[in-house]
Specification:
Layout (H helix, E strand, L loop, with lengths): L7 E6 L14 E2 L2 E2 H11 L5 E5 L15 E5 L7 H12 L6 E6 L7 H14 L3 E6 L2 E9 L3 H5 L7 H7 L5 E4 L10 H11 L4
Parallel strand pairs: 1-4, 1-6, 4-5, 7-9
Antiparallel strand pairs: 2-3, 6-8, 7-8
Length: 202
């Protein structure tokens, strides 16, 4: 029985965390940084290869992927917005010609390997162009993109993220429920809520 080719994964962590006031990638969650948590989640998903896209921070983030099968790519144009990070990651994957690419962020701490595997499985079973996470009455990342729509991701500009492409395909987009996706970590208040929910004291 033929097996599906591995799906590549982009982990985006290039932002400057301006609303947080400190590098959110290095905030602690269950004894690990948010980035280490996201990186381990990415590896546990079974996706390969995995590319971490850095920007505002690079050298500071590299220790967080130590020992993991993840390649770090520095996006020199990170300040122009998320589109440049998606482009940098896809260009780094170009030589592998992935059948599909999963894009995830470093600031969704409630994301699980199981949810990532569900996204991949649905895309491979249905051959949908995109399968996205559904939360807060919207569809967004994490999401899996078939290779045929990767050129459209490369066309994104400035602050445009993958959500723009997801929205443009409407009903053609498959979805997996991820109600916890409503919590990302952009502000001190959101991080405090995360710490409370996890029962942390740090």
């Amino acid at each position: 029985m033929p097996t599906n080719p591995p799906v590549a994964l982009l982990l985006l962590a290039a932002g400057a965390s301006t609303r947080m006031g400190q590098p959110k990638q290095l905030l602690l969650y269950h004894g690990r940084t948010l980035l280490r948590h996201a990186a381990e989640t990415a590896v546990a998903s079974g996706c390969a290869p995995i590319v971490l896209v850095t920007g505002a921070l690079h050298d500071e983030l590299l220790p967080e992927i130590a020992g993991l099968p993840i390649r770090a790519v520095y996006n020199t144009g990170w300040a122009s917005g998320m589109a440049s990070s998606i482009r940098a990651g896809l260009l780094a994957l170009a030589e592998t010609s992935p059948a599909a690419v999963l894009i995830m962020l470093a600031d969704q701490p409630l994301l699980t390997p199981e949810l990532l595997r569900q996204l991949v499985a649905q895309q491979q079973q249905t051959h949908a162009l995109i399968v996205a996470a559904a939360y807060a009455d919207t569809l967004g990342v994490p999401a899996v993109f078939h290779q045929s729509v990767l050129p459209e991701l490369l066309k994104l500009q400035g602050q445009q993220g993958a959500g723009r492409l997801i929205a443009s395909l409407g009903a053609a987009v498959g979805q997996v429920a991820f109600p916890e996706g409503v919590l990302d970590v952009d502000t001190p208040e959101q991080y405090a809520a995360l710490v409370r929910s996890a029962g942390q004291v740090d």
